[in-house]
Amino acid sequence: MRNLAVVVVLLVVLGSAMPASAKGGTVDKAYLQEILDTWSSFDLNKAGQYYVQGPGHLFFDIMPLKYNSWDEYKAGVQPLLKQYSSFKFKINDDLEIHPAGNLTWIVATLDVDTTTAGGEKHPLVMRWTAVFEKQGGRWIIQHEHVSVPMSAPK
Known about the structure:
- The protein is built from 4 helices and 7 strands; from the N terminus they run αααββαβββββ.
- It is of the alpha+beta class.
- It has a single domain (2-147), classed as Nuclear Transport Factor 2, Chain: A (Roll), CATH 3.10.450.50.
């Protein structure tokens, strides 16, 4: 159950200023790492720059089942962030980036080092899938799905 809470918090901690690759270029590993690093800052307003705003956009997390907008996502994760002092995300070598015109979808696994507010360390592996759309010259997340395997990978 603790891992589920960690995953929820980590998902919210997945978004700062847009790097050059996001400003009209392509979605690349550096841009994706920038999103994750922004989540590590615990600043949900900065993370929100990477997500489509408004209703009707699903973001799947470990719990609850789904969020129907960035505002729901932000409100749902904010209390969980208070339980942690740090997150460090690393995109693994299995990253796949699939550009398709104004859309790009990505899949990857992430190694995540978490530290609770009480100082306990909890490393875990997460799965990350996201669909980006180019809007106003920027690549933003239209849909995201983050999950954790039910058992540790072998």
